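Our consortium's second objective concerns turning raw sequence data into structural hypotheses that experimental partners can test. To show how far this objective has progressed, the report includes one record in full. It was chosen at random from the queue rather than selected for favorable results. The single chain below, 111 residues long, was entered without modification.
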Amino acid sequence: MYHEASDKIIEERLENAKLVQELVEERDKFKKNYYSLMDDVDKFMKDQEKRVMEANLKKMNEEKEAIFDLDRPALEAENCDVRSAQLSFKVILTREMKFDIPNIIIQPSKG
């Protein structure tokens, strides 16, 4: 009777050890899958950020070209100076792009 109880305890411990080993392997598999997914998400976020930055830059360049399409003599002829054009550019960028732009000094082209 003592030996039977002892054998059952030993068998139970072996079964528990096997179960723990299976759970550890499953946990490791899930961790590996999790880290792989996190790497994919990180890569996606970096790619998305790059696309957004490129789109914002393109939009800013289009806005700048639209505002500074006139050359300096044309601005002077319309009683506008370069500084007011720069401020207009700043206002449009701030309003359209939803971020604050510090004082921008853009040198007019000579020519």
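The partners drew two points from this record. Helices lie at 2-67, 72-77, 82-97. The mean pLDDT is 76. Both points have been shared with the crystallography group to help prioritize constructs.
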